[in-house]
Design a protein that fits this description.
mainly beta; Immunoglobulin-like; 5-stranded antiparallel β-sheet; about 40% strand
C-alpha cells in the first residue's frame, strides 16, 4: 500500500512540474544570402509573467537590427517596454518589463521579433546555432520561474536565382581606333 501511495505522489509531482512551464524558445529560421528576415522569441507560460531578460548569442557576422526589434502587441501588457544592448562579446542583451508589474497577455506565442539580414559571406547550406543565455522569466512574485529555454537554428538556404550562361558573342568588327569607326 505504501508503494502505491508513493507512486501516486511522485506521479502527481511530475505532472505538476511538467505543466508549470515558463520558457523562451527560438523557432528555427531559413533564409537566403542577402535576405532580410527575423528571429522570433516565443514565450510559453503557465504562470503570470511580468518580465523577461536574456542574452541572444548569434553567429559571427550576422547583421542584427536589434534597435528595430518589435514587442508583439498581442502579448504586450499595458505598459511593457523593450530595451536592447550590444555587449562587449558581440551578444545582444534584451529586457522586456512593465513599469507597473503588469502581466503579459496570453500564454503562448511570439513575444519579440528581431530583424536580421544574412551577410554575403555566408555559404548556401550552412547551419548556425542561435542561443539564449542568462534567461530570467519573472513572475508576479518577482521570482525567476523560467525553465527549459531552447535556442534555434539558422539555416542558409540556396538562393533560387536563375543560372545565366553566355551562349553566343557577336562582334561588329575586329579593330577599334580612337575617333574611328569599328572596322572588320
Amino acid at each position: 500500500m505504501k508503494i502505491k501511495t508513493l507512486f501516486k505522489i511522485v506521479f502527481t509531482l511530475c505532472i505538476t512540474m511538467l505543466s508549470a512551464q515558463n520558457s523562451l524558445q527560438i523557432p528555427s529560421v531559413s533564409a537566403s544570402i542577402g535576405e532580410k528576415t527575423k528571429i522570433n522569441i516565443d514565450l510559453t507560460n503557465s504562470d503570470p509573467i511580468i518580465s523577461v531578460e536574456f542574452t541572444l548569442v548569434v553567429p559571427k557576422g550576422l547583421i542584427v537590427y536589434d534597435k528595430e526589434s518589435i514587442l508583439k502587441q498581442d502579448r504586450k501588457g499595458e505598459d511593457h517596454v523593450l530595451f536592447t544592448n550590444l555587449d562587449k562579446d558581440g551578444n545582444y542583451h534584451f529586457m522586456v518589463f512593465s513599469y507597473t508589474n503588469k502581466v503579459f497577455k496570453g500564454n503562448r506565442g511570439t513575444l519579440i521579433e528581431i530583424p536580421i539580414e544574412i551577410p554575403i559571406t555566408y555559404k548556401d547550406g550552412q547551419s548556425f546555432d542561435i542561443l539564449l543565455k542568462n534567461v530570467i522569466v519573472s513572475s508576479t512574485k518577482i521570482q525567476d520561474v523560467g525553465s527549459n529555454h531552447q535556442g534555434g537554428k539558422l539555416l542558409i538556404k540556396k538562393d533560387f536565382s536563375p543560372d545565366l550562361e553566355v551562349s553566343e558573342v557577336t562582334t561588329l568588327g575586329s579593330e577599334a581606333l580612337p575617333d574611328k569607326k569599328l572596322t572588320a
